[in-house]
Structures are given as C-alpha cells and as structure tokens.
Design a protein that fits this description.
Strand order of the largest sheet: 1-3-4-2
Distance between the termini: 29 Å
Bound molecules: zinc ion
Largest sheet: 4 strands, mixed
Number of strands: 4
Structural class: alpha+beta
CATH architecture of the domain at 1-61: Orthogonal Bundle
Strand content: 5-15%
Oligomer: single chain
Order of helices and strands: HHHHEHHHEEEHHHHHHHHH
Radius of gyration: 23 Å
Helix content: 40-55%
Number of helices: 16
CATH class of the domain at 1-61: Mainly Alpha
Shape: globular
C-alpha cells in the first residue's frame, strides 16, 4: 500500500523521483525502491517525505480503497498527460477521504442519497428535440421549474452525485472529468474556472448520466451532452420569454444580462438562440465571427460569473464530529488541516490566510 501511495502523492505534487529524492536528502534509487515496495522508509524519512509531498503521514497508510472507473475527461487535445496525472491523483485523494468519512457513519444513516434516474425516462432519445424534451423532464422531475438554477453543485449533490473540486492550476487546458466510484457518479471540476464554465461542465456530465445508452448509433454523445447542458441550464421557454420567438439581431448586452441571470456563457446562449430557431444560422455565424474578433471566446467581457463551491463534504465532517462518529483529530485529518487551524475554525475564530 505504501508504495502505491507514495507514487500517487509524488505525481500529485508533480515531482520527479530525483526532485523528491533531493528534497528529502536521499538517493533517487531509494525512492525507486520505496515505490517498488522493496524498501520502507524510517519514521524520520517518512516524515520528510510527507512534508515534501504536502500530505500527512497517515495518508500513506490510509486503508480505504477507492477506484475511479469509466473516466471521461472533458479536455482539450492539448491537455498534457502530466496535468491529467496530477488531477487524477488529487481526485483519488479527495474521493478516498470521502469514502473514509462515509464509513464512519452508522449504517442506519445515509447522509448522501443513492443516485437514481427518474424511471419514466424514454428508452430512446433520437433527436435534438428529444434531448430538449428530456432536459425539461429532468427539470420537472427534480422540481426545478423553468427559472435559473441557482446552484448546480448543490442540485446534483442532493441527488447523490459526488462533486469534487480540484484546486490544481489547469490553465484552461481542462474542463472536467467524470467517472464512477462503485455506484456513485463522480464529477470533477476545477476551482480555477469561471462559474459559467463549471456549470456547463456539471450539466454536460449530468447529460451523460441521463443520455448514455439511450442515443441512436451515429449520434455523437459529446454533442448530445452539450445540447442537453444548454437546454438544462436555459430551457427553450425561458429563452423565448426573454428574447421573443424570432429576432433579426441581438445586442451583446442582452446576452450579458441573460448570462448573469441563468449562469450560462454568452456564447452558449447564442448557440441556444440558434438551436431554438430564434436567430437564423447565418446570423449565428455572423455573431461567432464577431465573438472571435473581440476575443470573447477566450474570455467573455465584463464581470465573470461567480464560481460555484461545494460544502457538502465539510458539512458532513462537522456533522460526524458533532454526533461523535469521529474525534477532532480525525476531523482535522479528513479536512487536511493542521489541528490548530481546525480548532480555530471549529470555534469560528479568526482564520489566517492559509486556512481554507
Ligand atoms: Zn462528455
């Protein structure tokens, strides 16, 4: 177990064997031996390794086994493998702490519901019109109405989807990833992205959960999920209520205001206006070109839509603490926080900048 953990922590830290060896003051060969299970470090070396890798020494011996299966990355073709390695290592670490936390809860309490899809979803979703319909159906099954969804993370978490926010700097090279831990669907987003991008990724991944296995052969699931995401975030009816049924032009300011109302990018609204026939395809193309010229496809103008955050994990750590399922030091460990910081946070004392 130690060997695997060391390798993962090293990848998560983005360090080569020799860089780690240098920091700890041992030979590269020794790191290699540790990672191949041929040698075990002394407790002093273990301590130095944990400092160099930014993990607590318990990390190396944590018993929970978590496997992320069926991973799908929403990445650019340029996403470097090294970045993906760092992200998956961080995700596994967070997912393991999740699994460990849930194990402290007694069997009679299910703090997280089991994810299920509505049982009256159609078996076949053949056209984009069907996708629009299914997105509306999901909204109505989940009692979301036709209004903006204030918090997609909370919406999905309350249905049993595990959301992991990774703080790894992604430099626009990564949108998200999805997979499963056992039966639990997991969606990973980056904390470094604007809220509208995070929300689109979350809705896109919900699209996979809903549409997978129901689409006709030959329909691109990625495109279908993007369509679903747009329809889920901004239903046709809401869009037509705001823009009308037919338009010969749209002011950028209108896109900007609707973006901040519904939490979906200006570009995605433009695509929705085309999909729902509000604007013609030639007008849509004209606006694409305009967006390119203004460089709005890299960064949209004005204020960015605020990030979404996840609180559920931390809430469940505190709930476990207050019900005495865990003690303070376990709570601090699960939150990756020094005990002294945790004490302060627990008492709602003044926190310093390194606490999160
Ligand atoms: Zn996808």
């Amino acid at each position: 177990m130690f060997a695997k953990r060391l390798l993962r922590a090293r990848k998560a830290a983005g360090l080569s064997m020799s860089a780690l060896a240098e920091e700890v003051g041992i030979s590269t060969n020794m790191i290699k031996k540790y990672e191949h299970g041929q040698s075990m470090p002394s407790s002093g070396k273990l301590y130095k390794l944990s400092i160099a890798l930014g993990v607590r020494s318990e990390y190396f011996f944590r018993p929970t086994k978590v496997e992320l299966s069926g991973i799908e990355y929403r990445k650019r073709s340029t996403t470097p493998q090294k970045l993906l390695d760092r992200i998956s290592a961080d995700v596994l670490d967070q997912a393991e702490r999740w699994a460990e936390l849930l194990e402290f809860y007694p069997d009679s309490i299910r703090p997280v519901p089991k994810f299920t899809l509505p049982n009256n979803l159609p078996d076949h979703i053949d056209t984009f019109a069907d996708i629009e319909h299914t997105a509306n159906q999901m909204r109505s099954e989940w009692h979301l109405g036709a209004n903006p969804i204030p918090d997609i993370i909370d919406t999905l978490e309350s249905k049993g989807v595990m959301i992991i926010c990774t703080p790894i700097e992604v430099n626009n090279k990564f949108d998200g990833l999805a997979g499963k831990i056992g039966e639990i669907p997991v969606v990973v987003i980056s904390t470094h992205q604007t809220g509208d991008r995070q929300r689109f990724t979350l809705a896109h991944e919900l699209g996979h959960l809903v549409l997978h296995g129901r689409l006709p052969e030959g329909m691109d699931e990625e495109k279908a999920c993007n369509h679903f995401a747009g329809a889920f975030l901004l239903p046709e009816k809401a869009l037509k209520d705001h823009f009308g049924y037919k338009r010969s032009a749209i002011e950028p300011q209108e896109l900007y205001m609707l973006k901040h109302e519904f939490g979906i990018s200006m570009m995605a609204i433009l695509i929705r206006a085309g999909q729902t026939g509000i604007i013609s395809s030639s007008l849509q193309k004209h606006y694409y070109i305009e967006f390119n010229k203004q460089r709005w496809r890299t960064e949209e103008p004005g204020e960015q839509y605020p990030n979404e955050q996840t609180f559920l994990y931390k809430q469940l750590v505190y709930r476990a603490l207050s019900e005495n399922y865990i003690g303070e030091s376990k709570a601090a460990e699960l939150l990756k926080m020094p005990l002294s910081h945790f004490h302060k946070e627990r008492k709602l004392g003044k926190m310093d900048a390194t606490t999160y």
